[in-house]
Amino acid sequence: MNEPIPFIDLKRQYAALRGPIAERIQRVLDHGQYIMGPEVKELEGVLSAYTGAAHCITVASGTEALLISLMALDLKPGDEVVTTPFTFAATAEMIVLLGAKPVFVDIEPDTCNIDAALIEAKITPRTRAIMPVSLYGQVADMDAINAIAERYGLPVIEDAAQSFGATYKGRKSCNLSTLGCTSFFPSKPLGCYGDGGAIFTNDAALAQACREIRVHGQSARYSHTRVGVGGRMDTLQCAIVLAKFERFEWEVEQRRALGARYHALLADVHGVRRLAVRDDRDCVWAQYTVFVEVRARVQAALTAQGIPTAVHYPKPVHHQPAYAALCSPDCCPQSVVAGQIVMSLPMSADLTHDQQHRVIEALRTAVAEASLISSPT
Ligand SMILES: Cc1ncc(COP(=O)(O)O)c(C=O)c1O
User: Fold this and answer.
1) Cα–Cα distance measured from residue 135 to residue 273, given in angstroms and rounded to the nearest whole number
2) Residues 131, 317: contact at Cβ < 8 Å?
3) Residue 130 has what pLDDT?
4) Ligand 1 mean position to 163 CA, how many Å?
5) Lowest CB count within 10 Å: 3, 177, 234, 312, which one?
């Protein structure tokens, strides 16, 4: 068997950044301020400049970013949040955790992002926010979503866990709506070496609320003026993101180029459909995901050749036992279909052209063989 290809090549990334990462970690060990040390503010400054958002609040994870944002909006039991079911469970989970109800809107079958044209019909007097997800690294149709939100006086939270670095009509993901939430989970486009996340906003009052909620609702030391959480991002993790940020622009360019190359090489691969990327935005390919009808057989054939794949996500959230009561199984049919056919291929900034070529050729053969086996004689 050929050398296995990593699904996400964090080792090669580390090899390129070993020096700056070691220096950054040493600096934290020397000053010893492990919680809310100077790297926290430094990172917030760097990321707010990068996105163009006036405020950045680092938090313990992408999940915590969603929770704190919803708490800052004062989401209450019985409130509704319009969102997509085709996402990682955390999106809906944080709404449910606060006693509110996710109201699911189906996806566009070609991008897998929330279908903005279906949102308005789901708005009720109890709707308190709209929460699109910028899936796979491509921003949802934020202008259309913001226009609906404005008509109903609703805030919009972009779940940008997968799309940090992506642009939409020339503007950066995370700075496209009332609040933007991202994740620094190690495999994300900008990752740390543990858990981390950030909230972005241009609203000073919301930024202040997020800052207080992240430290148990304190407006000053031991002055708990609201209910909060323990939601800080460690100084060490902020230091690691600062070191990784030195290479981030290059990595984003690589991801875009490798995504475009996958797209070009897959154009003539029969039985594989590519994700649509809209003309007015780009994709940072947190996952390079394709549609394949004969998925299980193809995955097995690729695994046998040292090529890992993944499914993001096999079932929409409303088909998960914990969330099944939220709507009928057929409330979002496109998301169910997508769950049956999406398959993600190896992707990271350090993927080589040779590795990509191997993936394509193995996929071409695997799909042809799997289609022969599964088609009636
Ligand atoms: C769309 C989406 N939302 C939220 C999260 C949660 O982020 P984290 O793992 O940093 O808590 C993820 C992470 O996988 C995600 O992909």
Assistant:
1) 17
2) no
3) 98
4) 11
5) 3
pLDDT above 60 (res 377): no
Q: How far is the CA of 307 from the centre of ligand 1 (A)?
A: 24
Distance of alpha carbon 274 from alpha carbon 290, whole angstroms: 5
Contact in structure between 191 and 8 (CB atoms under 8 Å): no
For ligand 1, the distance from its centroid to the CA atom of residue 193, given in whole angstroms, is 15
- For 122-133, what is the mean pLDDT? 98
User: Which of the four pLDDT bands, split at 50, 70 and 90, describes residue 249?
Assistant: very high
Alpha carbons 52 and 322: distance in angstroms, whole number: 37
Q: Is 64 helix (H, G, I), strand (E, B) or coil?
A: helix
Write down the residue that tokens 């903005």 correspond to. 116
Both tokens assigned to 116: 């903005």
Its pTM stands at: 0.97
Query: What is the model's pLDDT at position 163?
Result: 98
* Runs of H (alpha helix) within the chain: 10-31, 38-51, 62-72, 90-97, 142-152, 204-214, 235-245, 248-266, 295-304, 333-341, 353-374
- pLDDT at 376 (0 to 100): 58
Average pLDDT estimate for 148-156: 98
Count of Cβ atoms closer than 10 Å to residue 329 Cβ:
11
Question: Helix, strand, or coil here: 250?
Answer: helix
Residues 6 or more apart whose Cβ sits within 8 Å of residue 145: 114, 116, 119, 130, 132, 156, 177
Q: Check residue 371 and give its pLDDT.
A: 83
Q: How large is the average pLDDT for residues 346-355?
A: 97
Cβ(63)–Cβ(90) below 8 Å: yes
AA identity, residue 293: E
Question: Which residues line ligand 1 at a C-beta cut-off of 6 Å?
Answer: 61-63, 87-88, 90-91, 133, 159, 161-162, 183, 185, 195, 197
Residue 129 phi/psi, 5° resolution? Answer: -165, 160
Query: How many residues does the structure list for the chain?
Result: 377
- Testing ligand 1's pocket by substitution, the residue of 8, 69, 83, 88 carrying the most ligand atoms inside 8 A of its CB is 88
Return d(Cα 134, Cα 281) in angstroms, integer: 11
Least confident window among 1-5, 101-105, 173-177, 360-364? 1-5
Q: Which amino acid is at 69?
A: S
> What local confidence, expressed as pLDDT, does residue 2 receive?
79
Grade residue 38 by pLDDT with cuts at 50, 70 and 90.
very high
